[in-house]
Amino acid sequence: MGNADYVNDTENSTHRVAIPPPQPFLKSLNNALKETLFPDDPLRQFKNQPPARKLVLFLQYIFPILEWGPRYTFNFFKSDLISGITIASLAIPQGISYAKLANLPPILGLYSSFVPPLVYAIMGSSRDLAVGTVAVASLLTASMLGREVNASENPALYLHLAFTATFFAGVFQAALGIVRLGFIVDFLSHATIVGFMAGAATVVCLQQLKGMLGLDHFTHETDVISVLRSVFSQTHQWRWESAVLGCCFLFYLLLARFFSKRKPKLFWISAMAPLTSVILGSLLVYLTHAEKHGVQVVGHLKKGLNPPSIMDLAFGSSHLSTAIKTGIVTGVIALAEGIAVGRSFAMFKNYHIDGNKEMIAFGMMNIVGSCTSCYLTTGPFSRSAVNFNAGCKTAVSNIVMAFAVMLTLLFLTPLFHYTPIVVLASIIIAAMLGLIDYEAAIHLWQVDKFDFFVCISAYVGVVFGSVEIGLVIAVALSLLRVLLFVARPRTLVLGNIPDTKIYRNVDQYPNTKNVPGVLILEIDAPIYFANSSYLRERLSRWIDEEEDKLRSSGESNLQYIILDLSAVGNIDTSGISMLQELKQNMDRRGLKLALANPGAEVMKKLNKAKFVETLGQEWIFLTVGEAVGACNFMLHTCKPKPTTDETEKWSNNV
Amino acid sequence: MGNADYVNDTENSTHRVAIPPPQPFLKSLNNALKETLFPDDPLRQFKNQPPARKLVLFLQYIFPILEWGPRYTFNFFKSDLISGITIASLAIPQGISYAKLANLPPILGLYSSFVPPLVYAIMGSSRDLAVGTVAVASLLTASMLGREVNASENPALYLHLAFTATFFAGVFQAALGIVRLGFIVDFLSHATIVGFMAGAATVVCLQQLKGMLGLDHFTHETDVISVLRSVFSQTHQWRWESAVLGCCFLFYLLLARFFSKRKPKLFWISAMAPLTSVILGSLLVYLTHAEKHGVQVVGHLKKGLNPPSIMDLAFGSSHLSTAIKTGIVTGVIALAEGIAVGRSFAMFKNYHIDGNKEMIAFGMMNIVGSCTSCYLTTGPFSRSAVNFNAGCKTAVSNIVMAFAVMLTLLFLTPLFHYTPIVVLASIIIAAMLGLIDYEAAIHLWQVDKFDFFVCISAYVGVVFGSVEIGLVIAVALSLLRVLLFVARPRTLVLGNIPDTKIYRNVDQYPNTKNVPGVLILEIDAPIYFANSSYLRERLSRWIDEEEDKLRSSGESNLQYIILDLSAVGNIDTSGISMLQELKQNMDRRGLKLALANPGAEVMKKLNKAKFVETLGQEWIFLTVGEAVGACNFMLHTCKPKPTTDETEKWSNNV
């Protein structure tokens, strides 16, 4: 399509760019708040319902069990029973291991697998999530509280602070859900979580060297250098019995996982492996009296259900601020894992999970937990995956697990007396190795270098610094990237795709053609204060460079600049000033500015700021094609004006 | 154009969306860094030049005076002489006033108008900027240093800390310029500055009540409540002589400004008014001996040029951290004002200012200043405007001003002995009232409510809290807005503009028509970790709502979803996962997903992540029009598939 067509087209095909009708301020504020805080419109189902129905819906909203409970069938129960028992067999050894990792009494791991799953079963909306403690939050509790209070010197205070931290984690989680700020969790990007989890897993594995080598003394730091120095400074203390036993069990566990991975039907081999390890290990120690030959054992576990701990919450303690800080950090980490797990399985089975509602459920679970001798729980990935593979249908599997743990607490705790610590260590290591997702890291490198950089920073920060340092670095880098995107938007030159009226980026489509005398630029971000100075300079540089190029090649002068605003989602007053200055600058140089396809928001503000008047409504076009058509029409009908060289006049002024 | 046309078009008009060729990693990293840190390509002029020329260019780059100096003419000098003398007449009384505001010896105000302008004249690239001290930075110095050291009890330490703060302000400013992080200043948006300046002006005016009422004791706080309490708790101390004198001079100054504003030719009336006020006031006091009747005077000013102060820099002081903090905060504020002023006048006269280079000039000016008994200087708006109106041509006007101040320092300081403080107070108030730009605030309200909110927050923060609180609130709100934009992108439904192949937002263009069976959505922000969860939910909700609507109206089923990615500037791995999940989810519901116009960066990443394969290259279109065409072609040639109601199957599962 040649230039002649454009000229013919111009008259009849030009459409006005609409200026949206003004909205009352309160209405638009209300809309903006609603979109920000209630993007999922949770009140939609309440509309046009009688009050009684509203109450039922409200109760079902808070307690999803009321919604699915009445429809529960015996067939579902059979599935849930199997999966519940499977996850209980995983929960018991893992619970004890993670409680040791948090420097808490091992029995707390069992307590934490009893009450919180019951709360979640009533309030949670995921059908696949299995509730329990997690390694990373346990490690974080140990490292953050351990800096203030020594767990072995002052176990009671340490325990009370752990309950208090759990309480505040719950309060914080519930509060985030209630004020609908759940999107804070979104700021932990996938890349951050991959790096962070791998780092935390590395750190947790390193910590297990204590148990594996049967060491008595160990550093309180978590970074790799301190740990290795601590391990290798006491080589004479290494217990070979412990190490050999540990390696055997680790081999067994990894083998079991290897088989399960190859045949998903054999998931139960991997799920049962920790419990069989514990049983085998305990039997072995009991029969050989290995506890007297350097193999440390769990020791006495108290029989009986969770004692209340509401009176242990240390609100008056001088370490309260540490407890609050620990609670918030572990709470957010736990939330991020739990929500991500819930969401992934919901996607598999195609049901919907409301993030904010889940947060309230997690929060309540931890608040109730902190009053019943539990520490921080969430929905761990490994346990939920086993639950899913075992065919769970509803949250009843959590109730089954809770009952299994209850029976263990009531009758079976003495059996764990001889459980060797080294078996627990190998259970943890086996679980942690699965968290180091190097494939995901390779994928990040291939797809997005910056994401990979964030991921590696989080890993290095966690492994060589501390868990918090890694997290802060990764979140800061992620935010920096968002800010950089806005501060340094790209400006693209567009060219005409031959035989069409379509204009696209000349770098992406090398076969595009320039339109003589017209420079078409696209801005691919909102125009905000953070980038308006940059855009002012960058757009001038594009124009300068284009003029230089045309001058050196002896082609016709530049006469029109078309700014494609399709990708400019919004503009603020600094951005409008930038456009006004650009317009003035171009007027002085004898160039004409045209805008193409400004969006509703942009058009509204340009109109209010009178920029539409200044520019002339006739210079705002619906598409780049129409803008080019109009420019060409002018170029061919009006006689071309020479570019008044005011620029040069000014720069020679001095 | 009916559907039939689309079908006919589909075959021959579809264009492939290009996947940009892969770039070597180091090359793309290099490009990205260059665009981020060197958007103005400062090395462009050095390319292809012989070494000797390069050296000359380099020296001219560092010292712009070498560039314009040789072309300087006598005609320029005549203009610069007049403007230089004009700004000197403003600089002398303002300098004394602002130094008093900073709780520093008044003579420092004169020192600061001597050395820094000379440095700037050599290194600065603005032709219109007049260098001097500013009220806001003076007040900030007083409030931040005053919290640590009492200026009246320990004047020497206070003075040394002020020099040290100036030194660090200079170092910080120069460092920002050298590492090319000048864009940090851009994060102070126009709205922030309007609110902040108005707040600071209000606070400064309130501080002048001390001088106006002739009070001896005054609060060290700057917030309105403390100040008013301090003023009204000592009503018996008010001196009516002082107040009457002050009001008269204030009236005179405001009247002069009023006339100058109405006739820009009379700018000199306003410019000279402060000096005539000082002369009149001093004469009045000298003749009536008013200093013995409650009118405070400046008192003795030392004769002679700036003494060196390099040995006074208090690097070893225990208050060093306060000095550094003060330096950084005042340095950034001063930089923001100076750069903005330089840029606005450069725009008027159409020459270019390199922000990073200016920062180095400001930094050097303050480093040299701190070694020669000057405190923080920048390019104040009022003085530069007078300079501009007086017809200055180059930075020589700053040199003229410096010489005029030098002569004053050498010979005229005794004349200021009887200058009444109250006259200085009215000079400050008159200058500050001009900074309260309520018209700009009204404009913000009309154009952009959020900007207005930021502006008012800054104002309220400064007036009721402190200068730093106001600043922190405003910057945090501005950043929050950028983050919110990314965290909550808008998703727009597009419709067909009748008789075209153009698709636009149905809210902005009410005459658009839906395409039966096809839902077209546009995302107007990059898809990042911060918004991918939100987009996942929001897109599902659009689809749900559309299906509900079609079902209730009995229309044909929804079959195609077209995502217009024109405005999606970038995507990260979280965003790609979101698209993959969306695709899976839609497959399960029997819907087809098509993408329209993904950009180069997005296409590259989708390809690397194998999403292009998963989706099928044939489902990625260059324009929405082509995508709709293809969908319509399928709808009419293939027999419509019933939507497999897997959704319902799943949700009835329990």
Automatic annotation (TrEMBL), chains A, B:
The chain crosses the membrane at residues 129-146, 158-179, 191-209, 238-259, 266-287, 328-348, 360-382, 394-412, 419-436, 456-480. Its main location: membrane. Residues 508-631 form the STAS domain. Keywords: Membrane, Transmembrane, Transmembrane helix, Transport. The keyword Repeat does not apply. This is STAS domain-containing protein. It comes from Cinchona calisaya. Gene3D superfamilies: STAS domain. InterPro entries: S04_transporter_CS (IPR018045), SLC26A/SulP_dom (IPR011547), SLC26A/SulP_fam (IPR001902), STAS_dom (IPR002645), STAS_dom_sf (IPR036513).
